[in-house]
């Protein structure tokens, strides 16, 4: 490939809202046959809203929300922002004492001297706070509605469930159609629950789903596909996608995403519109065809 033509392709990309790390990136785009898409913030807007609060038998809903909100206030995760905003709208939130992010699982810390956990049931189980029948049922119902549900516990007991809703970006289904037209197989990859992931996948026309994947394992999913001979593009926005973006044959980040994702990627889609990922593949194929 002549450097001149690649440079021209890069310039054209910039005008289309695609920032390309270097001219050689266009070369690696040529072989791509699979596009792995992160769910939250990539296929969906990632702007979540709190839609339901369920308290366990004998617990107080307002208190479940207040303590969860206080802790989530310290986290940047889309689920955390929804919980904190929903809680703050219903009353003042105390400042947390200790706080720790448990990547891909939730948060833990102290609020008013109580040891609080918010996140996936697996996180609460790790701290010997299994969900009772009532809360398990509430989680299941929320997930069947396509909502992300998280559990809240403190001082040795699971106390409630919070459900947040996310919305699929209006452009995602069209982007998936474009990927297929280009001969690319789309796969949805997420740390979220399988039922929720399926609901989102159905809505945008994806049939392959890899769900409940911890952040550190996302890169391994990419590696597994590569080991089976696939040439993989990964599109993601989060800190938890950075390793997978770096591992992929082509990493695409969203300009609306985190710095870590942008740094780890080869291409950045400035406006966060997934359709532009298909444009990028088309552009590089056209640029390289001209060169040949
Ligand atoms: P994704 O892969 O869809 O971007 P993550 O890996 O960031 O999702 O998170 C996976 C799951 O872990 C979330 O769906 C949520 O259930 C839980 N989780 C992660 N962070 C938090 C948090 N701060 N509060 C509550 N739950 C969380
Ligand atoms: Mg994400």
Automatic annotation (TrEMBL):
Domain of life: Bacteria
Subcellular location: Cell membrane
Similarity section: Belongs to the cation transport ATPase (P-type) (TC 3.A.3) family. Type IB subfamily.
Protein name: Cation-transporting P-type ATPase B
Organism: Nocardiopsis flavescens
């Amino acid at each position: 490939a002549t450097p001149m033509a690649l440079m021209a392709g890069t310039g054209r990309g910039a005008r289309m809202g695609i920032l390309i790390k270097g001219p050689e990136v266009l070369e690696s785009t040529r072989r791509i046959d699979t596009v792995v898409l992160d769910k939250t913030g990539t296929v969906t807007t990632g702007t979540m809203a709190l839609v339901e609060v369920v308290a366990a038998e004998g617990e107080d809903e307002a208190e479940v929300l207040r303590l969860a909100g206080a802790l989530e206030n310290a986290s940047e995760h889309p689920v955390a922002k929804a919980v904190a905003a929903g809680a703050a709208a219903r009353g003042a939130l105390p400042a947390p004492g200790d706080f720790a992010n448990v990547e891909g699982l939730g948060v833990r810390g102290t609020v008013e001297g109580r040891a609080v956990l918010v996140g996936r049931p697996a996180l609460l189980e790790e701290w010997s706070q299994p969900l009772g029948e009532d809360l398990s049922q509430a989680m299941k119902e929320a997930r069947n509605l396509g909502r992300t549900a998280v559990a809240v516990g403190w001082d040795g007991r699971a106390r409630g469930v919070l459900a947040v809703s996310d919305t699929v970006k209006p452009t995602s289904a069209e982007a998936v159609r474009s990927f297929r037209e280009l001969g690319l197989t789309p796969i949805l990859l997420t740390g979220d629950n399988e039922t929720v992931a399926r609901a989102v996948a159905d809505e945008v026309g994806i049939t392959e789903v890899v769900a409940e994947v911890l952040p550190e394992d996302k890169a391994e999913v990419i590696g597994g596909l590569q080991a089976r001979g696939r040439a993989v593009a990964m599109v993601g926005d989060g800190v938890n996608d950075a390793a997978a973006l770096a591992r992929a044959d082509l990493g695409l980040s969203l300009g609306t995403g985190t710095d870590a994702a942008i740094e780890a990627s080869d291409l950045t889609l400035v406006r966060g519109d997934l359709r532009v990922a298909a444009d990028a593949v088309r552009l590089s194929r056209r640029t390289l065809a001209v060169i040949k």
